Amino acid sequence: MKFFSLLFFIIGIQFASMAQTPESPAIVFGPVFGDSKLQELTYYKINDIDSVQFTALKFYISGVELIHQYKTVWKEANSYHLVDAFQEQSLSLPLNVPTKLKYDRIKFNIGIDSTTSVSGAMGGDLDPTKGMYWAWQSGYINFKVEGKSNLCKTRNTEFQYHLGGYRFPYNNLQSIFMDMPASQLHVVLDLKKLITEMPLTQKHHIMSPGNEAMLMMERVINCLSIKK
């Protein structure tokens, strides 16, 4: 009996230790439409008359850095992640940082840098089969959103926005700085806010780098927030 009591005591200590272990640092993305979690092929009301559904939402996160007192203290190696709103496992990006590292802010990019873009198509999340690569002349698509809305006077009421570009003056890479908690940073991307700023009735497709893509990417950045 003493043996089993000791065994249960040891197991209890191990579970208690595990329970007290803080979460591993990670960036967690939460695509939403207003107060609702974003779901594929689900219609959402824009107003009393108009609605929208999303068939694709993908974007690249790259160049992740942790900052302490305005100095970079950690950089992620091979920092390229493809986030797919409809692939749950891609929404959480764990950060393999050293233990006891002090940091208070995080920096990451939405998009792929020019050096990587001119290096040609690569593997992993940068594999062109992921549907996020145009060609070496135009590079990677930094942000892609596709769907349908009755506001679009197109065939099948479809819209497509593929935002990218790495050459001056249309370098579409966007750097984001946010306060970083000790565990997980939850970043919300509100498609309702984005869709109300999209020119769906006039401009249904953006498929190449340019001024329109730059303006649209600014709208995307304005739809990001930290979940409190």
Please describe the structure with a list of short key phrases separated by commas or semicolons:
alpha+beta; disordered N terminus; globular; single chain; five-stranded mixed β-sheet; 228 residues; 19% helix; ten-stranded mixed β-sheet; 39% strand
Overview of the molecule:
The protein is 19% helix and 39% strand. It contains four helices and 15 strands. It has one domain. Mean pLDDT is 89; it is low at 2-22. The chain has 228 residues and is α+β, with helices and mostly antiparallel strands. The chain is globular and about 55 Å long.
Q: How many DSSP-defined strands?
A: 15
Rg is 21 Å
Determine the fraction of residues in helical runs and give it as a percent range: 10-25%
| Basic shape | globular
Summary of the model, kept short:
By secondary structure, this protein is α+β, with helices and mostly antiparallel strands. The chain contains four helices and 15 strands.
Helices and strands in order, then pairings?
Layout: H1 2-20, E1 26-33, E2 36-37, E3 44-45, E4 51-68, E5 71-75, E6 80-84, E7 92-94, E8 105-110, H2 114-118, E9 133-135, E10 139-149, E11 158-164, E12 174-179, E13 184-190, H3 191-197, E14 205-206, H4 211-222, E15 224-226
Parallel strand pairs: 1-13, 11-14
Antiparallel strand pairs: 1-2, 1-7, 3-4, 4-5, 4-6, 4-8, 4-10, 8-12, 9-10, 10-11, 13-15
